[in-house]
Amino acid sequence: FGIRLGAGAQYIKIHDMKISNMWGDGICTGGYPDHIVMQRLLVTNNRRQGLSITTGTNIQVLDSEFSFTNGTKPEYGIDIEPDGGATGAYASNILIDGNYFHDNVAGGVQPYVGSKHVTISNNRFSRMKEGVYAIGSFDGVIKGNSFDNIKYEEVHLSSNVDSYQIYNNVFRKTSTTGVLTSITGLVGKATSFITNSGSTHLKVLTNQYGS
User: Fold this and answer.
1) Mean pLDDT of 148-169
2) Distance of CA 161 to the CA centre of its chain
3) Sequence-distant (≥ 6) Cβ neighbours of residue 204 within 8 angstroms
4) Is residue 3 pLDDT above 80, yes or no?
5) Is the pLDDT of residue 86 over 90?
6) Given pLDDT bands bounded at 50, 70 and 90, which one contains residue 2?
7) I want to staple 146 with a disulfide (CB 3.0 to 4.6 A). Which of 127, 158, 170, 175 is the partner?
8) Of 102, 104, 25, 42, whose CA–CA distance to 70 is shortest?
9) What average pLDDT does range 13-36 have in this prediction?
10) Cβ neighbours, 10 Å, residue 78
11) Which of 202, 168, 172 has its CA nearest to residue 185?
12) What mean pLDDT value characterizes the chain?
């Protein structure tokens, strides 16, 4: 790792740095660090992830670039994956705002099982397989982002995502799906609020679609 924040880390700001060419992650958190701010970072050409938030609370990622993550899976700009989904592990109160995600092999941000209270706002996502790919995440907001040249789904809500709101985003030069979920009836340019098995309590509204 370029930087690793472990147990007991509190009230730390990492800013104005370039972190690149790491064999694993550019940055990794674990052991529930608390009140962490990462700002104005260039995190590029790392092999596994740009940033892994495996556990932690009150983490802000602001005004940074995550790009060209490549080499071994998952290959995301930011992966919020609490200890691989271990029972009881969590990452909570995560703000990802004002960043630029591009040319990561897999995608921009992945909120995974155990992530909760995640806000992804005012970011740009470009030239990746997927923009945001949420799996088993609870209570999230995806708002005010722009997506362009995404190969598959700009926002992909997979199994057991609960209480997510997706609004005021702009999808340009997009795939044919736009917003995809495992729920039948909420695919593409849907604007609805529904409850069903699998993913539940989803609001998708006031997004713009265009070339």
Assistant:
1) 85
2) 13
3) 166, 167, 179, 186, 190, 191, 192
4) yes
5) no
6) very high
7) 170
8) 104
9) 97
10) 31
11) 202
12) 87
φ, ψ dihedrals at 96, nearest 5°: -120, 105
Averaged pLDDT for residues 167-196: 58
What is the amino acid identity at position 30? G
Amino acid of residue 6 = G
For residues 134 and 97, the answer to whether their CB atoms sit within 8 Å is no
**What is the DSSP annotation of 32-45?**
--EEEEEEEEEEES
The greatest distance separating any two alpha carbons of the chain, rounded to the nearest whole angstrom, comes to 47
pTM of the model: 0.90
Q: Are the CB atoms for 170 and 194 separated by under 8 Å? A: no
- Taking 60 as the threshold, does the pLDDT of residue 192 lie above it? no
41 neighbors 65 (Cβ within 8 angstroms): yes
Q: Nearest Cα to 186, choosing from 144, 153, 211, 150?
A: 153
The partner residues of 164 in beta bridges, in order of sequence, read 140, 202
Total count of residues recorded for the chain: 211
